[in-house]
Amino acid sequence: MANLMMEPVYERPAALEDRATHYCPGCTHGVAHRLLAEALDELGLREQTILVAPVGCAVFAYEYFRIDGCEAAHGRAPAMATGIKRVLPDRTVVTYQGDGDLAAIGTAEILHAAARGENITTLFVNNAIYGMTGGQMAPTTLPGQKTTSSPFGRNTAQAGFPLKMSEILAQTPGAAYIVRRSLHDARHINQAKKAILTALRVQQAGLGFSMVELLSSCPTNWGMTPLEALRWLESEMLPAYPLGDYQVSEAVRALGG
Amino acid sequence: MSRELLKGNVAIAEAALRAGCQAFFGYPITPQTELLEHMARRMVELDRVFLQAESEVAAINMVYGAACAGVRTMTSSSSPGYSLMQEGLSYIAASDVPCVVVDVMRGGPGLGNILPSQGDYFQITRSAGHGDYRPIVLAPATVQEAIDFTELAFDLAEQYRHLVVLAADGQLGQMMEPAELPSMRSLPRTRPAWAITGAAGRAPNRISSLYMNAEEEEAFNLRIQARLAQICAAEQRSTEVQATHAELLVIGFGTAGRIAASAVEQARAEGLRVGLFRPQTLYPFPAERLSALLACCAVQNILVIEMNAGQMVEDVRLVVAGRVPVHHYGRLGGVVPYPEELYTVIQQHYPSLAASAE
Questions:
Q1: CATH number of B3-181+211-234
Q2: Contacts of A48 in chain B (CB under 8 A)
Q3: Which domains occur in chain A, in start order?
Q4: In sequence order, what DSSP letters do the residues of chain A get, joined into one string?
């Protein structure tokens, strides 16, 4: 037999555990997990990264990555990550948070982490709903969107308006890199991956707070098939949450890439 | 080392960093703010971590993070701030990570006032937030004890991987008296094997308080209870004055216990057989020694003196179990009793005097 050279073109990232997740079929958390794991592998960060998981659908995230991890109280991941990063300044610390966690109960913690220029990276998964508790209104739920706690559609006169966290956090001088990406198709997924790589490099370079907001789908609680959900994300969420770079500091621009 | 004039809050802060505290996170609140201010200066001088958090909620979660990363860490607050920390304390409790929390108690409930109180006894000794747990609680009565117990707090926290609360009050935090500080301990070069530091050359470490399966959660809880039983057996601490020769035993902790000591001294000078028992650990409550005093000695009456409406008295009654009458005298809302006032109360409850008054 001649030497049969086989080159893998696609494999499980080393930073991801080989195990099934609890996520619903069609949910984009799995995509977000994979992107983070690939980015950690590519930057050689697997053995020096600490993940802070949220309360919400990603509550078990620390079980899915083959890296050190912990589980924060609801909304407190940025505070817990701050405690870790301050005593391990040469490690990479990542929080992974949903919209209820980051934009409702944890608003103070994320805002002040950004304001301090805390040298951590946040992946913010925005699917406009509370997934884990079964589809209640989130701070990011769109006006008119039906959820189990806004059964007639979000009435802004009664329940107020959605928060645009990337736009808000970009106003803080400590924020170095704040961008919004989407996971609804392959092209956008590639763009999301590039943003996660940049955010981690921002942290490695010590440039300040970095966050990648990922617009995501929740077929189960939106009451749609996975494909319908991705289409709804594109048609309804993208106009409400425009993709883009909300803060890219001069130092980050100088990083290139 | 020599004695110097030290303010309680400052003494606790300095003792903490000398005991190896590597990271302090806190939020200003009277009457503990000098502790945070001392840390703000000294931790930076020592190239350690000081951070003023946006709230007590954030502060305790920062402590949680630093504790998970395996360093000696602490926060301090006063009653309303300690209330805000309950969530974080519960997660810390459920994660088996060591840390030290100081509560310089003030008058409550609500915003209350900034005066000395012991009104947080229940909150501190009964739980750490929600769930079944009890922190180790140390109650100093002097600035020297505050220093010694701060060191002890870090050692016990590390030994048992358990939460330790230093229960002080506004009087102890604000008063100055001569005390001796310990020498500076050197910091460890390594982190504990369980700490989350990056999974370099080993399997990942994971710290979580989540057990979806009831039996697993029960098994974890039983491990906590086994550790608490060990703590109860080994860590009860108390001090006493003439307790073995007392017909009336006065019991008080912290500032109330210290003031009661003066009243007891006066009563003994007047020929009354009065003794003092002062718990130094509120959890574990020093039940063994108190029980032994009841079994061997002449105690006919117990008088519990607190700066609250009657909280530790419940622990006393659990130990006494009806063997002798237990009375309570409390001042509330930030009022600190005077020794003369307590002397009068002692007279009222002294067995022969109480009998003749009836």
A1: 3.40.50.970
A2: 198, 200
A3: 29-255 (3.40.50.970)
A4: --------SS---TTB-SS---PPTT-THHHHHHHHHHHHHHTT-GGGEEEEE-SSGGGGHHHHBSSEEEE--TT-HHHHHHHHHHH-TTSEEEEEEEHHIIIIITHHHHHHHHHTT-S-EEEEEE-SSBTTTTSB--TTPPTT--BTTBTT---HHHH-----HHHHHTTSTTEEEEEEEE-SSHHHHHHHHHHHHHHHHHHHTT--EEEEEEE---HHHHTS-HHHHHHHIIIIIHHHS--EEEEE-HHHHHH--
Chain B residues with CB-CB distance to A57 below 8 A:
none
Chain A interface includes B46 (CB < 8 A):
no
Determine the CATH number of domain B238-357. 3.40.50.920
pLDDT of B353 reads 79
What residue ranges do the domains of chain B occupy? 3-181+211-234, 238-357
Asked whether this chain's domains B3-181+211-234 and B238-357 adopt the same fold, the reply is yes
State pLDDT tens for residues A23-57.
999 999 999 999 999 999 999 999 999 999 999 99
Closest Cα of chain B to A239: distance in Å? 33
Nearest chain B Cα distance for residue A89, angstroms: 10
Q: Tell me the pLDDT tens digit for each residue of A151-192.
A: 999 999 999 999 999 999 999 999 999 999 999 999 999 999
- Chain A residues whose beta carbon lies within 8 Å of the beta carbon of residue B201: 47
CB contact under 8 A, A62 and B208: yes
CB contact under 8 A, A80 and B68: yes
Report residue A8's pLDDT band, with 50, 70 and 90 as the boundaries. Answer: confident
- The answer to whether the Cβ–Cβ distance between B196 and A66 falls below 8 Å is no
What number is the average pLDDT over the span A210-238?
Answer: 98
Query: Considering only CB atoms, which chain B residues are within 8 Å of A87?
Result: 22-23, 49, 66, 69-71, 73
pLDDT for B57 equals 98
Q: Which pLDDT score is estimated for A4?
A: 73
Q: With a cut of 70, which residues of chain B have pLDDT below it?
A: 1, 355-358
Given a cut of 70, whether residue A3 has pLDDT beyond it is no
